[in-house]
Write a structure and sequence with these properties.
By secondary structure, the protein is α+β, with helices and mostly antiparallel strands. It is built from 17 helices and seven strands. This is AraC family transcriptional regulator.
């Protein structure tokens, strides 16, 4: 009998859409860098860019962020006209751990960023009970690379806030520049309301969180820095949502497909109707959660050459490998064998 999905180690983490890879490469393309080499160094097959449904692991995406920052000597990956020199992020974080409260740290950090030459201005705005980190572009319209830089700046700021206080701060609303290009994964990651704007990116949260104490130290800063940016990519997603609770529950099961909605409901103390209603409110479905979990687990298991495709199919609860093949192709646009071959090639050339 197959073991649980978690028995193969820390797999089945949420994966990253290939559109995010395409967007972070915009600056490198604009500057004429060899995109294929950057992708290979990150362990990503360039061929995946041609499959709009494909996804990469969090580790691959974080590695690409580091490769681009190091190659371009720019912590905003060439997405804006002004470089953010390597080390800027670490120097600012080293100042924040000396602040007493989150509010003081946010104001200090954004103030230090405003001293750097950049096309956008970050500020903390507080109106009544709502606080907002707002990143505003100097122009009325924002191009696609700069839009991605602004959104990523917001999300990384949020990750730093959560790290400083050692807790996830609930987000009320996300503002996203609506310029041309790919839409953000913000709604899926943050599970909150999205507001499209002309020239700013923002994150809103209840203002009382600004009074939280900063709990990090010089020692914990060193551990934090070693994991950047991977620890900021998707780490602070909302794990309290019912869809996330169900996903965690399913990860512990041997056969994901064999778990019924009724069984999940009993475990959570809910009727199947209540589970469905809550999932619908989150824009989710029980079958969709199972499919996404198996897709993400499959992507990570395919990176292991010691497992055959039949092994992976069985591990994910498929009685026949052919069924797994069809499902994987519907998820990513590629057959699992092709996906594996493409992703093992970059590892061989690094």
């Amino acid at each position: 009998m197959p073991a649980s999905i978690d028995s193969y180690g820390p797999i089945a983490q949420h994966t990253v859409a290939i559109t995010q890879v395409i967007q972070i490469l915009q600056g490198a393309r604009r500057q004429g860098l060899d995109i294929d080499i950057a992708l290979w160094r990150a362990g990503i097959s360039p061929g995946l860019l041609e499959s709009p449904l494909s996804r990469v692991t969090q580790m691959q995406y974080a590695r690409l962020m580091r490769v681009l920052a190091r190659t371009m000597r720019d912590e905003l990956w060439g997405l804006t006209p002004h470089r953010m020199r390597p080390g800027s992020f670490i120097r600012i974080c080293s100042q924040l751990i000396h602040c007493r409260t989150l509010g003081e740290a946010v104001r200090t950090g954004l103030g230090l960023y405003r001293l750097l030459p950049q096309v956008f201005t970050p500020r903390l705005l507080v109106a009544g009970d709502v606080a907002r980190i707002q990143v505003t572009h100097r122009e009325s319209q924002v191009d696609a690379p700069e839009s991605y830089a602004m959104r990523t700046f917001c999300f990384m700021s949020y990750g730093v806030m959560s790290w400083l206080t050692a807790r996830r701060i609930p987000v009320l609303c996300v503002g996203v520049p609506s310029g041309k290009g790919y839409r953000s994964e913000a709604e899926r990651l943050m599970r909150t309301r999205i507001r499209y704007t002309s020239n700013c990116a923002s994150l809103e949260f209840e203002a009382h969180w600004l009074a939280l104490p900063v709990v990090q130290t010089a020692e914990s800063l060193q551990a934090f820095i070693r994991e950047v940016p991977g620890n900021l990519v998707i780490k602070y997603r909302d794990r309290s949502r019912l869809s996330e609770r169900i996903r965690r529950l399913l990860r512990q099961q041997a056969l994901v497909d064999g778990v019924t909605l009724e069984e999940v409901g009993r475990h959570l103390g809910m009727t199947p109707q209540t589970v469905r209603r809550h999932l619908k409110a989150e824009g989710q479905s029980f079958q969709g959660i199972k499919d996404n979990l198996r897709r993400d687990a499959a992507i990570q298991l395919l990176a292991r050459p010691d497992l055959t495709l039949n092994d992976i199919a069985a591990q994910l609860g498929y009685s026949e490998a052919s069924t797994f093949h069809r499902a994987f192709k519907s998820w990513t646009g590629l057959a699992p064998g092709m996906y594996r071959e493409a992703n093992l090639k970059p590892a061989a050339v690094r």
